Each structure stands twice: as C-alpha cells, then as structure tokens.
C-alpha cells in the first residue's frame, strides 16, 4: 500500500484534544471511564464531561432522594426545625413548597433567592448530613434577609457578613467535616479558618468584587462583629 493510500485509510481527526472520556451509559463504558479517572489518564475536561453525563443519567433518582431527605430534615432535624421556626417568627415561610431539589450545572451545593426560596443541587449532595448543612446554610441567609434587610446586589459587606454567619452556624465548618472531607487537618482555629476561607470564596464570586484581595479586605472589615453574632442561636450550634 502506498503512503498516500495509508494516509487515506487513517481515521479523520476531529481537531479536538482527547480528554479520555468515552460517551456511553453501559456498564463497560462506565468502568473504562472510572479506570481512566483513577489512573489519571482522563483530563480535567474529561472528568467534567463524565460528571455531567452521570448527573443527567441520575437526575430523577438524585432529586427523589433529595426530596425524601429534605422532608425528613424539615420534620426531625433540630437545627432545621429551629431555623424554620425562627424564620416563621420573622414573617417568612420556608418549607418543602419553596425548598427545591434540582440538578445544577455549576458546581455548588445550593443557593438562596429572596423571591423564590432555596435551591438544593441534588446532584451535588453526598449524603443526608451534607444536605442538612446545605439547608442550614441557606436558611441562615433567609433569616438574615428578613432580620437585617441584606442588600444582596450592591453591598459586599452585607454579603460577607451573611456568608460568615452561614458558614459558622450551619455546621459545614465543624472539625469532622473539615478533617475527613476537605483534608484540612489543623487542630487549632480550624473553625475560624474554614469560615473565613468560605466567606472569601463566596464574596470573590460576586460581580462587584475586584479580586480575591478585595474579598479578603471586605471579610476582614466585618469579621469581628459578624463572627460573634450567633443569632438566632445562643451560641454556635454545631
């Protein structure tokens, strides 16, 4: 076979880099993709493609599990029932009719919107404990919105303060979660460092924040008063 024939017989190139991800929902394809991830042969882009395909495939089951666990927590979780009652006393109403379990396309756990309620990213929930922390975090935001009239759009100090309080009071920065899930292995001031880190990250993502240094400055400005403010709890609950 001539060189020209050999070149003609080769598969055409798409011009796109190989990410290592192989599309397909069958078990063998899933095994190949998992093997590529575990052996480091799949690129970051390929891993994200794998996660998106998995999230789409599992959307119904993820949302159903999230809704079942949400309803349980609303009835039996001490921190969730306390926050729900505290919000009700301020004239708000957060329950299963406006706490939504949905598949999210960005990598976050959830969000609060004063008009619509709470969004839980069902495809990002690892277990019921993670869901409880996420609900508590967003319910602290709801409490702050009603109690302190938070300016979510333009006031970075408001945003920093409610993020400090939500991370501190929700339980997501307790020692066990930091140690076992996030690899933060410090034994002193771990809680404060976690709260500060997460507040800076959140403020950094807001449109009117210039950069991370600006976010750190704003968090530092409000840290003392906001970290000490444990309302509606008497102290840091978890």
TrEMBL record:
Membrane disposition: Peripheral membrane protein
Enzyme Commission designation: 3.4.24.-
Chain segments carrying region Disordered: 1-23
Lineage top rank: taxon: Eukaryota
Gene Ontology cellular component annotations, sorted alphabetically: mitochondrial inner membrane
The keyword Metal-binding is assigned to this record: yes
Protein's recorded name: Mitochondrial inner membrane protease ATP23
Organism: Penicillium capsulatum
